[in-house]
């Protein structure tokens, strides 16, 4: 149990590539912090720097208030779960979990007690004598978790631990990780590129892009108020509709000249992009719904029924728009419909991609 | 592709039997010759069934000492050859696994230079550097010693290369997991790398043991005393050009004895690497 503080962390690889640019981050005790971003955004590098597997070019990392820049991974009192689990293939499940404890010269009975306890919590007790290759993907994942938990470290680090599992198992393990982390209360840093995983797991969500932190906050805050255009497009599925706006004064209109109907919408001159989440759009069937809403006329191009919901893909002017409607829909491609969104649900970004 | 028609199976088995016969008959014939007296061998035709002098011939060769090679017994020669072959095999594996470990898992200045230095020794066969090597051995006073017989044959680029390729297939995450688990470089080597290399080590041991066992040119140069010779060298010395001087029955005994240890090594180690192959990760 510990806090983690990153101060002005930079990582420049020998080739000159700057993977992480001046990252500042404070994680409170017991929190599950998720680093999310597209591949190559520096999230894994950052995690590996916290682990001590990667050197720090600049800045300071402190775990529990103690500077750890110069400490090796073993001395930082952390445990890590790797993407490919990295179980020792020639050791039994028991030995895999006991290995780290043996290296710390813990007495044998104590090791035995801990391994069996953790194995019981993770329902691994009947697998202790097996080798990793005799286990299913989900079981291996559990062993990797067990190896981390048994150490009772100050900090858990997860490097995309679920990306090798199938979708169903991933959902189960996600819930399990969340519950385990809650009940153990160990501060954790979790790296993923899956925004759904990030949203559901995080106490604190850190969205990264190209080595920069774009936004830090509670998942729902980030979802409702994305600070930048990048965050807006990255968080949420299907992604937020982003419509380029016409510059200058006058009635609000899209860059291709299509006017935005409805009333109550006033945009500042700096606004260049309008963002609307698919689920914030609704079908407009009569004129009463115009007040306080922005209205778009769209031509339906395709419909994707998913079961509980359907996605309508349409064009407003020359821009593609996705609308989420509940249940099934009887509409056909080619039809013209009106959709609206509450002005309060609109996201407006300026030239630099910053939220206004 | 399995065809169960009886005619096909008969043809297949007949072909296999012919193959077995061609390979096995000379060895059988050698064995037969090793159980007859010299007189029987020299008076053609040689019988096709073993004679009655099995115990006598083998006892003479193993313990008695053979005149043509200064009265040294084959038992002593077997011992020499075993020591030489085991030292070469173990030495080669030790040196190459450690150097491959250094080249793959550590970052040090001139790392690739060292790797290429090891690699280019592959381009020079033993024969090319045999004179300078001989001079070095003479200067160190290593003529007629086990060290002299084995040291120059130990450094092995082939084995280093093999281990390097194998180590490079080991995922980096495994090393990182071990580091997080508090394993230093030696612990990682002993606890993880070495057990994972078992199959490779077993295969290499077999190859290098046979390589050491069948060495000819180098032992011939570096030994003068008959009691330091290897069995292969002794076998050559036992055959003189005048047929009558050669004790063919003892030569045949020595032949049979000379091929037994390599066969045993293969049979014994085979279990190891077959198990290793079965156990490897999917």
UniProtKB/TrEMBL annotation, chain A:
Instruction: Specify the superkingdom.
Output: Bacteria
Q: Which SMART domains match?
A: AAA
Q: Which UniProt keywords apply?
A: ATP-binding, Cell inner membrane, Cell membrane, Membrane, Nucleotide-binding, Sugar transport, Translocase, Transport
Gene3D superfamilies xref list: 2.40.50.100, Nucleic acid-binding proteins, P-loop containing nucleotide triphosphate hydrolases
Question: Which species is this UniProt entry from?
Answer: Phyllobacterium salinisoli
Domain (ABC transporter): give its ranges. 4-235
Q: Which Pfam families match?
A: ABC_tran, TOBE_2
On whether Heme is a keyword of this UniProt record, the answer is no
The protein here is known as: sn-glycerol-3-phosphate ABC transporter ATP-binding protein UgpC
Q: Where in the cell is it found?
A: Cell inner membrane
Question: Which protein family is it in?
Answer: Belongs to the ABC transporter superfamily.
Entry's Gene Ontology cellular component terms: ATP-binding cassette (ABC) transporter complex, substrate-binding subunit-containing
Task: Please provide, alphabetically and separated by semicolons, the GO molecular function terms listed in this UniProt record.
Answer: ABC-type transporter activity; ATP binding; ATP hydrolysis activity
Note the topology in the membrane. Answer: Peripheral membrane protein
UniProtKB/TrEMBL annotation, chain B:
Q: Which Pfam families match?
A: BPD_transp_1
Q: What GO biological process terms are annotated to this protein in UniProt?
A: transmembrane transport
Q: Mind listing the UniProt keywords for this protein, alphabetically?
A: Cell inner membrane, Cell membrane, Membrane, Transmembrane, Transmembrane helix, Transport
This protein's membrane topology, according to the annotation, is: Multi-pass membrane protein
Q: Which InterPro entries match?
A: MetI-like (IPR000515), MetI-like_sf (IPR035906)
Highest taxon, organism lineage:
Bacteria
Q: What is its main location?
A: membrane
Provide one Gene Ontology cellular component. Answer: plasma membrane
Compartments, record wording: Cell inner membrane; Cell membrane
Per UniProt, residues of the ABC transmembrane type-1 domain are 78-269
Q: Hydrolase: is it a keyword of this entry? A: no
Q: Which residues cross the membrane?
A: 12-31, 83-106, 113-134, 146-167, 188-211, 248-269
Indicate the family of this protein.
Answer: Belongs to the binding-protein-dependent transport system permease family.
What functional role does this protein have?
Part of the ABC transporter complex UgpBAEC involved in sn-glycerol-3-phosphate (G3P) import. Probably responsible for the translocation of the substrate across the membrane.
Q: Subunit comment for this entry? A: The complex is composed of two ATP-binding proteins (UgpC), two transmembrane proteins (UgpA and UgpE) and a solute-binding protein (UgpB).
- What is the protein name stated in its UniProt record? sn-glycerol-3-phosphate transport system permease protein UgpE
Per the UniProt record, the source organism is Phyllobacterium salinisoli
According to the entry, what is the taxonomic lineage of the organism? Bacteria, Pseudomonadati, Pseudomonadota, Alphaproteobacteria, Hyphomicrobiales
- Its gene is ugpE
């Amino acid at each position: 149990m510990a806090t983690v503080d990153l101060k002005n962390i930079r990582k420049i690889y020998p080739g000159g590539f700057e993977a992480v640019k001046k990252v500042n981050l404070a994680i409170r005790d017991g929190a599950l912090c998720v680093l999310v971003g597209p591949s190559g955004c520096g999230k894994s590098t950052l995690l590996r720097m916290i682990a001590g597997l990667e050197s720090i070019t600049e800045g300071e990392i402190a775990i529990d208030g103690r500077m750890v820049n110069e400490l090796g991974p073993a001395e930082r009192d952390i445990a890590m779960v790797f993407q490919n689990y990295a179980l020792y293939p020639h050791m039994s499940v028991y030995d895999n979990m006991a290995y780290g404890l043996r290296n710390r010269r813990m007495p044998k009975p104590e090791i035995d007690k801990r391994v069996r306890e953790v194995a019981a919590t993770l329902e691994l007790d009947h697998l202790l004598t097996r080798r990793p290759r005799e286990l299913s993907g989900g079981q291996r994942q559990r062993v990797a978790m067990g190896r981390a938990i048994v150490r009772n470290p100050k900090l858990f680090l997860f490097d995309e631990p679920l990306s090798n599992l199938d979708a169903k198992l991933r959902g189960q393990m996600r819930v399990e990780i969340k519950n385990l982390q809650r009940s153990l209360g160990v501060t954790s840093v979790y790296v993923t590129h899956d925004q759904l995983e990030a949203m559901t797991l995080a106490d604190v969500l850190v969205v990264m892009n190209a080595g920069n932190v774009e936004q830090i906050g509670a998942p729902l805050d980030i979802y409702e108020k994305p600070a930048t255009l990048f965050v807006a497009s990255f968080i949420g599925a299907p992604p937020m509709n982003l419509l380029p706006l016409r510059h200058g004064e006058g009635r609000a209109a899209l860059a291709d000249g299509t006017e935005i109907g409805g009333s109550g919408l006033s945009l500042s001159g700096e606004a260049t992009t309008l963002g609307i989440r698919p689920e914030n759009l609704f079908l407009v069937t009569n004129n009463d719904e115009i007040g306080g809403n922005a209205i778009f006329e769209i031509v339906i191009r395709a419909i994707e029924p998913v079961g509980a919901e359907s996605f309508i893909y349409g064009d407003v002017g020359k821009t593609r728009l996705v609308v989420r409607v509940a249940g099934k829909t009887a509409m056909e491609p080619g039809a013209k419909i009106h959709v609206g969104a509450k002005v309060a649900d609109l996201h407006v970004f300026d030239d630099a991609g910053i939220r206004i | 592709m399995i065809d169960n028609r009886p005619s096909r199976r008969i043809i297949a088995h007949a072909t296999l039997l012919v193959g077995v016969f061609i390979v096995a008959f000379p060895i059988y014939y050698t064995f037969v010759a090793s159980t007859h007296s010299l007189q029987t061998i020299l008076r053609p035709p040689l019988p096709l069934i073993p004679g009655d002098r099995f115990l006598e011939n083998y006892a003479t060769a193993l313990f008695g000492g053979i005149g043509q090679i200064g009265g040294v017994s084959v038992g002593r020669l077997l011992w020499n050859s075993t020591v030489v072959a085991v030292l070469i095999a173990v030495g080669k594996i030790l040196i190459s696994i450690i150097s491959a470990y250094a080249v793959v898992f550590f970052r040090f200045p001139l790392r690739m230079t060292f790797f290429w230095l090891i690699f280019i020794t592959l381009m020079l066969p033993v024969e090319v550097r045999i004179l300078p090597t001989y001079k070095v051995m003479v200067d160190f006073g290593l003529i007629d010693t086990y060290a002299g017989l084995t040291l120059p044959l130990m450094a092995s680029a082939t084995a280093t290369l093999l281990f390097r390729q194998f180590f490079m297939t080991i995922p980096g995450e495994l090393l990182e997991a071990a580091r997080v688990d508090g394993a230093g470089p030696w612990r990682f080597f002993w606890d993880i790398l070495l057990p994972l290399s078992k199959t490779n080590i077993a295969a290499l041991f077999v190859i290098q043991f046979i390589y050491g066992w069948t060495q000819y040119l180098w032992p011939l140069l570096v030994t003068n005393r008959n009691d330091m010779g290897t069995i292969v060298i002794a076998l050559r010395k036992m055959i003189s050009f005048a047929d009558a001087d050669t004790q063919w029955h003892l030569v045949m005994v020595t032949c049979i004895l000379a091929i037994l240890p390599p066969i045993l090594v293969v049979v014994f180690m085979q279990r190891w690497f077959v198990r290793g192959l079965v156990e490897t990760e999917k």
